[in-house]
Amino acid sequence: MPIYTVETTYHLPVYRRRNYEAATPEEACGLALDDEGWGDAEEDVDTSGETYVTGIWKGRNAALSGEEIAVPEDFGETVQRKADLFEALVAIVREPARPMGLSQYQFEHWLPRALSVLAKADAISSIPVSDRP
Hints:
By secondary structure, this protein is of the alpha+beta class. It folds into two domains: 1-75, no CATH class; 77-133, no CATH class. The chain is built from three helices and five strands; from the N terminus they run E-E-H-E-E-E-H-H. It has helices spanning 25-34, 78-94, 104-126, and strands at residues 4-9, 14-15, 42-43, 52-58, 67-69. A hairpin with an 8-residue loop joins strand 4 (52-58) and strand 5. It is flat, with a radius of gyration of 22 Å.
């Protein structure tokens, strides 16, 4: 049976709480984002993100040196999959929204693509990572 080296990742929230003197909430938020000092940061392990696959290679201990294999889409980070899908959904939904409408031919070309993208959207939003096969 083949051996694979699989790299998994999760996002660990790191936060800091600081005071900023500012005229508005927007200005305070801007100051906080521009503040590069993180020496007093805290890790929030209780709210870490999902675990997802970021790389897979054929072979034992083959990360970055073995034959890299494309990560199957279902094992990517859900939030990134949703972001990628958003662009496809907007493009598909925009087509029938054109002022002149769709011809029968255009509709027959559009409908299967729209249904495919919507099925992918349903799969992304309805299957928790822990329930994947």
